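Feature request, filed as a ticket because there's no other form

It would be nice if the structure record came with a short human-readable summary line next to the tokens. Right now we just get the raw output. Example of a typical job, pasted below so the devs can see what we mean:
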Amino acid sequence: MKFIRDLKEGDRISDIYLCKHKQAAVTKNGKSYENVILQDKTGVIDAKVWEPGNPGIGNYDTLDYIDVCGDVNSFQGSLQVSIKRIRVCREGEYNPADYLPVSAKDNDKMYAELLDMVDSIRNPWLKQLLESFFLADDEFVRKFRHSSAAKTVHHGFVGGLLEHTLSVAKLCGYYCGAYPILNRDLLLTAAMCHDIGKVKEISPFPENDYTDDGQLLGHIVMGSQMVAEKAAAIHGFPHGLLAQVQHCILAHHGKYEYGSPKLPALMEALALNYADDTDAKLETFKEILENNSGNQGWLGYNRLFESNLRATRE
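Raw output as currently delivered:
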């Protein structure tokens, strides 16, 4: 099997992939086509069926395992497959484990690092709050350790939420050393909790798509609610301290246009915003480079970065 991570422009593929998404569309000229997202354990790739009425395109749907024949092209800096033939596979023709993208980092080691951070918190209220999530709530822990951090943009793999959270918390730990004025306990607590709402916003794999609550409320609001619910179960939890944690969560996207209900008003909220944005952007760039591993030069224009990206030459 040729994994998505290893595809390069000019390849012709004839292999089995998970159809993560399928959507009918129409070109500006009124011609029907289909948008498809193919997935395996190494990632996802955009694909197009330009001739959906072609006899070689069998009936298929989202979450089907499909045998695909097509050509790999480059479009706006990203690889894209032009699909010529599709056949739905029968059970036994594929190993489902090959089709779930998984973090390259060890899940147990990452979680142990996160628990070490929890243990380092000195404020008793914040430590209790973190323990109520990451030690006492088995269902939450299971979801948190296996959720993605996003549908497609960054950390869109099993363990992605844990990997992203740990990276953000480590960056915040560095900030605390560089700027001792920061309240370390507050910032690290907010960092570890900033994306907990994603366990409710995004459905489990292999679907890994937005839930109804995710569409209606979003992970920022739900994460703030989850923290409030846990704090309410801790007798005497200081209201002002809870409000500060919630503010950091509500402001961690930094701007209204990026989905933040609040703009950062605390130094800790600002630090969290920059740590979150740094990890998300660098991981996104890393995934773009990995998906274009055969190209050591210019990769084309990328809408997210609003720039023509380039791979560094050694």
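Something like this underneath would help us a lot:
The mean pLDDT is 92.
The longest strand covers residues 12-26.
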